[in-house]
Amino acid sequence: MKRRTLIKSAAVIAASTLFSSKAVANQLIDINTSSAKIDLNKVPRFGNGRDWFFESRYGMFVHWGLYSIPGWHEQHQWRARVPRAEYVKLANQWNPKKFNPEEWLDLMEASGMKYITLTTKHHDGFCLWDTKQTAFNTMNTPYKKDIVGILSDACHKRKIPLCLYYSIVDWNHPNYPNSGRHHELPLQPHDSPDWDKYMGFLKEQVRELCTNYGEIHGFWWDMNVPVYKEASVNAMIRRLQPKAVINNRGFDEGDFGTPERDYNNGATEAKGFDKLVEACQSVGMESWGFKKDEDYYTDRHLISSIDSYLARNANYLLNVGPTGEGVIPAESAAILKRIGKWKASVDESFQQVLPDSELISTAGVLVTRRDRTLYIHLNKLPVGNGIKLKPINVLPSKATLLNTGQAIDCVVNLCPSDHASQQPYLRLRNLPANESSGTVLVVKLEFDQPLEQIVHPKIPETNFELTK
Questions:
Q1: What's the rounded Cα separation, in Å, for the pair 413 and 409?
Q2: What's the CATH code, domain 15-349?
Q3: Per-domain residue ranges of the chain
C-alpha cells in the first residue's frame, strides 16, 4: 500500500507514527491539511454501484465472536495470553440463542445508521459462517447456525447494505506465520508457517463470502501484519461483488482510508480529505467486543467525532459488541439511540452539502453549505454563549438552531477585540451553550444573497450595528 501524507500546513503531521492498536501498519490515509484555500470536494465518485457509500455515510460496526463469552476484549486470546489449546474450547460454549438480526437492524435504523459491517472472522480465526476451509466455525458449535447467512438474509429483506470484516491475522490457522509481531501469537506447537498456503486458504474464504451470501456492499480488511501486496485479491472481490467498497487495510490501497478512534491526529484535525474516508470508533473505551464492565465514551465525545467526519464529507462507522448470547448491551443501545436523536435533528446539515470549513476562521467550527445556506457546526465545546464568525459581516435572513428549531439571535457589529481592524463581524448570541454541553449545536444560516457575497470589504463605520 502506498503510504503518503500530503502535508501542506505549518504544523507537520507525523502520520507515520500515529498507529492504531488494531491496525498498527494499515490505517494511514492521504490527508490534505493545507492552510490555504483548497478544494475539499475533489473526492471523485466511483460512477458505479459503489456510489451507495457516498449516500449512506453513517453505519454500524459489530464486533462479535467467541471473545464475547469471557466478555473482556475482542483480542482476549492475545492480550490475556491464553494458549490456543485453551481458547478454542470456547467454541463448545458458542450458543447465542438470543441473536435476532431484526433487533440489531431495528436499533441500527433507529440510530440513523444506513449500513452494517460485521466481523466474519477476527484475529482469533473463529468464523461466523459455514466455511468449508476450517472446522473452527459456528457450524461446529452447539449453535450450528450460519451467522453471516442469517444476517445477510435480514439485510437483503430490508434492503440494508451489508459489509463484511475479515482479519488477515489468524491465531488459529497453522499456516499463518505467527511469529510474535504486533497482533500475532508466538509460534504455536504443531504450526507449519506457510504464507502461500495461508493465502490460498484466505482467498477461498473470501470467495465463499463473496459468493454464498447474495449482494455484499463492502469488504473491510484488517491487520495485514506482513504488509503483503497482491492486487488479485481485491480484484476478485470486485469481480464477484461490484457494489462492494474495499478499505485500505488489505492487499492494496483499496477505496477508502480508515482512521480509528482518536489515534490519527492528522485525520482528526484536517480541514478536509482528498481521498474517501470512513472513520471508525466504538462506544466502549476499552474493547470493540463485549466487555462485562465496560467504560463508555460520553455522548458529547462520540457526537463531536461523528459530526467532525460527516461535516467533512467522510463516512463514520460506530461499533457495538454484542454479548455471547447475541444481544447488544442496553447501555450501548441507549448511546446509539441518543446519538440517533441528535443526528435526526441536524441531518439536513449533512445532506447534499459541500464542506467549507475554511470559510470561517473561528476555532472549533466546521461548516457545510448548500445554495444560499450555511450550517455552522459548533464541533468543539463552545467556551461561551456567543460566537464570532469571522470574516462574515452580512446578516442572514434567518438563523435557526437545528437541534431545537429555535431562532438564534445574531448581530453584525464591532467588538472591542477587533479594534485594530475596525471591522464588524457576524456574531451568534445567547446560544444555549450550558444547556447543550452534552451535544453538538448546529446553526442554520439562510442568506438572501449568494454565499460568495457574505463577506464585504472593510466597513469603516465603527458604531454600525445590524441585528436579527
A1: 13
A2: 3.20.20.80
A3: 15-349, 356-467
The answer to whether the beta carbons of residues 447 and 394 sit under 8 Å apart is yes
Cell of 380: 468543539
Phi, psi of 217 (to 5 degrees): -105, -5
Whole-number CA gyration radius for the chain: 24
In the 8-state DSSP scheme, what is residue 261?
T
Q: What is the pTM of this model?
A: 0.88
Strands (DSSP E) found in 321-468: 354-355, 365-370, 373-378, 387-388, 398-401, 409-413, 425-429, 441-446, 466-467
Residue 8: per-residue pLDDT: 31
pLDDT digit string, tens, across residues 252-300: 999 999 999 877 777 777 778 888 999 999 999 999 999 999 999 999 9
- pLDDT at position 459 is 64
- Return the H-helix or E-strand segment holding 204: helix 195-211
Query: In whole angstroms, what is the distance from residue 420 CA to residue 88 CA?
Result: 70
Closest CA to 248 of 271, 270, 273: 273
d(CA 260, CA 425): 37
Amino acid letter, 269: E
CA distance 418 to 103: 55
Confidence of residue 462 (pLDDT cuts 50, 70, 90): low
Q: Can you give the length of the chain in residues?
A: 468
Domain 356-467 grouped into CATH 3.40.50.300: no
Burial 26-41 (b: 16+ CB within 10 A, else e): bbbbbbbbbeeebebe
Q: Give me the residue label for grid cell 438572501.
A: 448
- Asked if residue 27 lies in contact with residue 249, where contact means CB atoms within 8 angstroms, the answer is yes
Q: Is 269 left (phi over 0), alpha (psi -120 to 50) or beta?
A: alpha
Mean pLDDT, the chain, rounded, equals 89
Q: Give just the sign of the alpha carbon dihedral 122, 127, 132, 133.
A: positive
How far is Cα of residue 440 from the mean position of the Cα atoms in its chain? Answer: 17
Nearest residue to 22 (alpha-carbon basis) of 108, 119, 87: 119
What 3-state class would DSSP assign to 210?
helix
Query: How far is the C-alpha of 278 from the C-alpha of 57, rounded, in Å?
Result: 8
| pLDDT above 70: residue 18 | no
Our measurement of the distance from residue 28's CA atom to the centroid of its chain's CA atoms, rounded to an integer in Å, reads: 14
